[in-house]
């Protein structure tokens, strides 16, 4: 009988513990605390996934850079201009602004007068460059030296394709 009473008291203690645990779980302050922690973990996980997607995933990598030269007389080799801006391929488009790409173009090629950049999200950058204008053709033995607006001879050519001032020295 003593054994039976101890079992029943153990059973009652166990049931009492379950009831107090469930009452503690239904405590509004603790429930709010658990909800806050769960929400914080969920938001943090979402931010980590969004950060990875935006900055590290290949989704926003620059896959194509289109370079055009809108100058009427070009002294720059188009291949050199394209290769300069092709260094952007494979980099994240969200980490660059049109202003930063424009400054990069001016620092890489000092003979540029204007650089227009269009970001075509998520993977293309269109760059339109304009060289400093060629204003003068200095004749040599059988070549003409083309001089830009800074007074620098940028190219020599045997013939002139467009009307320029010819200076005899």
If you had to describe this structure to a student in words, what would you say it looks like?
The protein has helices at 2-25, 28-56, 78-85, 98-108, and strands at 64-69, 112-120, 124-131, 134-139, 144-148, 153-157, 165-166. The chain has 169 residues and is an alpha/beta fold. The strands form 2 sheets. Strands 6-5-4-7 form a 4-stranded mixed beta sheet, with no helix packed on it. A 3-stranded mixed beta sheet has the order 1-3-2, with helices on one face. The termini are far apart. The model has no long low-confidence stretch (mean pLDDT 84).
**Unreliable stretches, pLDDT < 50, 5 or more residues?**
none
Radius of gyration: 36 Å
Q: What's the total number of strands?
A: 7
The span between the termini is 130 Å
| Coarse morphology | rod-shaped
N-to-C SSE string, H for helix and E for strand: HHEHHEEEEEE
Strand order of the largest sheet: 6-5-4-7
Itemize the secondary structure elements and their pairings.
Elements: H1 2-25, H2 28-56, E1 64-69, H3 78-85, H4 98-108, E2 112-120, E3 124-131, E4 134-139, E5 144-148, E6 153-157, E7 165-166
Parallel strand pairs: 1-3, 4-7
Antiparallel strand pairs: 2-3, 4-5, 5-6
How would you concisely characterize the structure shown here?
With 169 residues, the protein is of the alpha/beta class. It has helices spanning 2-25, 28-56, 78-85, 98-108, and strands at 64-69, 112-120, 124-131, 134-139, 144-148, 153-157, 165-166.
Features:
three-stranded mixed sheet; 169 residues; alpha/beta
């Amino acid at each position: 009988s003593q054994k039976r009473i101890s079992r029943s008291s153990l059973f009652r203690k166990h049931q009492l513990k379950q009831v107090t645990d469930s009452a503690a779980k239904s405590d509004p302050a603790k429930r709010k605390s658990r909800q806050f922690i769960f929400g914080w973990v969920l938001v943090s996980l979402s931010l980590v996934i969004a950060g990875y997607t935006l900055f590290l995933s290949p989704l926003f990598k620059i896959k194509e850079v289109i370079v055009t030269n809108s100058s009427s007389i070009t002294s720059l080799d188009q291949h050199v201009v394209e290769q300069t801006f092709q260094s952007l391929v494979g980099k994240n488009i969200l980490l660059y602004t049109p202003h930063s790409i424009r400054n990069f173009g001016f620092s890489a090629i000092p003979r540029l007068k204007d650089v227009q950049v269009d970001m075509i999200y998520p993977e293309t950058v269109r760059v339109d460059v304009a060289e400093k204008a060629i204003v003068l053709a200095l004749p040599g033995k059988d070549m003409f030296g083309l001089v830009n607006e800074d007074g620098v001879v940028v190219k020599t050519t045997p013939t002139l394709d467009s009307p320029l001032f010819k200076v005899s020295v």
